[in-house]
Design a protein that fits this description.
The protein is an alpha/beta fold. Helices cover about 35% and strands about 30% of the residues. Helix 6 crosses helix 7. The longest helix is centred in the middle third of the chain and has 14 residues. The model has no long low-confidence stretch (mean pLDDT about 95).
Length: about 210
């Protein structure tokens, strides 16, 4: 890991238990349901940036074969304590070690937002490689321009760094990587959870076509 990502992971290791508990309240249930209805029934899912396994465990209960990857050892340890049904691995999304056509769906919920902008397209391209034909990719990103350094209650007011993106940037990345967009829209966190501050999110569902 470079120093940029090391700092990000150090924060999540520091706040692991509190983050795992608090993050449950902000589950993107709408997107999660859309995702499982798009992915092949009973197929294989990669939860990229799985944290403490919130979504991985849910996908397992819905009959999918699930692998979760993350770089925070402490969050992964919490995930492993919950269940032995999901395969949890320490792995960097920038250097994924899976064969081609390994997964029917990839759920990347608020993960790429912690990468440098120049790393995003290569990661999306690697997602394309490990998806099966017509496999589904879900990305959740923060909308905006440039970068943002944020402290909030979910992260125990520890500083986290984010890369913000616009809709056109997502569209270009998806087309370049060989994906067809199934659905792309924005939403505000405060509208779903009144206790959250106003943050614009981008939800993108795409299918491997190239």
């Amino acid at each position: 890991m470079d120093d940029y990502l090391k700092k990000v992971i150090a924060v999540y290791d520091k706040i692991a238990e509190d983050y795992a508990k608090g993050n449950i309240a902000y589950t993107p249930e709408i997107e999660r349901e859309k995702f499982i209805h798009l992915v092949k029934k009973g197929g294989s899912i990669l939860d990229a940036g799985c944290a403490a396994g919130r979504d991985s465990e849910y996908f397992y209960t819905k009959g999918f074969h699930v692998t979760g990857i993350d770089l925070s050892k402490k969050l992964l340890n919490l995930a492993k304590q919950k269940s032995t049904h999901v395969k949890y691995l320490i792995q960097d999304v920038r250097s994924i070690h899976f064969p081609a056509n390994s997964f029917d769906g990839i759920f990347a919920c608020a993960v790429l937002i912690h990468l440098k902008r120049e790393d995003m397209l290569p990661v999306i391209q690697s997602f394309h490689r490990i998806l099966t034909e017509n496999g589904i990719l879900f990305l959740l990103m923060k909308q905006g321009k440039g970068k943002a350094d944020i402290k909030d209650g979910l992260a125990s007011y520890e500083l986290r760094k984010f890369t913000l993106v616009e809709l056109d940037e997502i569209k270009k990345c998806m087309k370049s990587a060989g994906f067809a967009i199934v659905e792309l829209y924005t939403w505000n966190s405060h509208d779903r959870w009144p206790d959250k501050r106003y943050v614009e999110w981008i939800s993108c569902f795409a299918k491997k076509v190239g």
